[in-house]
From TrEMBL:
Pfam families: Aminotran_5. The lineage of its organism: Bacteria, Bacillati, Actinomycetota, Actinomycetes, Kitasatosporales. It comes from Streptomyces vietnamensis. GO terms for molecular function: cysteine desulfurase activity; iron-sulfur cluster binding; metal ion binding. The keyword Iron applies. Its cofactor is pyridoxal 5'-phosphate. This is cysteine desulfurase. PROSITE patterns: AA_TRANSFER_CLASS_5.
Amino acid sequence: TIYLDHQATTPADPAVVEAMSFAATHCFANPSSPHAAGIRAFREVERARGAVARLIGAARSEIYFTSGATEGNNLAIKGVVTPGEHRHVVTTAVEHKSVLDSCRSLRAAGHEVTVLPVDGEGRVSARQVAAALRPDTALVSVMLANNELSTIQPVAEIGAVTRAAGVPLHCDATQGVGSLPVDVRALGVDLLTFSGHKIYGPKGVGVLYVSNGLSDRAPLAPLLHGGGQERGLRAGTVNTAAVIGLGAAVGVLAAGREEESARLAGLRERFLATLAELVPYTLNSGTGPGFLPHAVNLSFEGTDAQQLLLEVTDIAVSTGSACNSSAQEPSHVLTAAGLAPERIRGSIRVGFGRFTTEEDAVRAARALAAGVSGPAARTAA
Ligand code: PLP
């Protein structure tokens, strides 16, 4: 199988597997234990925390390990918006469900939520955010890059707006951190989340960045209560091997991100050029600087993409978002960007990754084109 679904998850880098194996064998002690073995595990966890902090331009004391971006998003949103005088949240229509549903739960608890619409590329503007702010706005949450359309949001511009207004800004950077430079100060964010498994690290581990400025002004309320790990914000024994694996993933990423992003953009170009020779398609996402370099969303009109992917068994791509387990409904992201239902029905998302070769890109284009030309993929007239 040619795996081209790197937005859903990535395979672990060999360096990650090695680090986790080392950790499982030599750092099994509880990093909170005061004996030598515990101290050794603690040191390795702190080394990983340092690597994560350097990756995003944060201080080590601003990094909290979680079980993934879903938990990080829940913790950021529900942790900031506790009952009180601030009762309004601003987000966008194209966020991941873990953000949208966290906001929905706040709404059910009596808070107000403004969900900003997006343009045809899936983008919001800083001006929209500025217009939505109110005196009682407690949080703005905008993702760095979209998991379906690859749209990069103008987070630094939004950060300038929220800074000026004194409103905390949360950014779900899960899809962006693997291919874009991320600097929390340049972005002007107070909270930022991502997951290990989208950057060739392990599943079940993630990062929540909380600026020290925010912690001092308005400490987050934890979701889990217990042993007080992660400075009281995330109780539960630290997942040492996964955290150490994440540290290794961050090391590999930091060493080669720029060249790798350029290589992946080249593979995407090759894939699209090969496909264009064989079958007509429409691009739903852009391929310019406002979009992630390694991914593309496109539609074969008149084709049922779900059916197509069942037939083209030797490549792994997806329709819409795999993070959404019951993907029967049309994608909320493509719908928000104004795509017609027929175009959404024929849409697929292709994401190239670290182990994809040029031959894979060409073979995948040929396999998809053959599938589209096959009878069963076509919509019955
Ligand atoms: N946010 C975005 C933008 C995502 O693409 C995903 C993907 O799953 C998540 C959050 C959730 O990450 P996880 O499943 O690792 O919690």
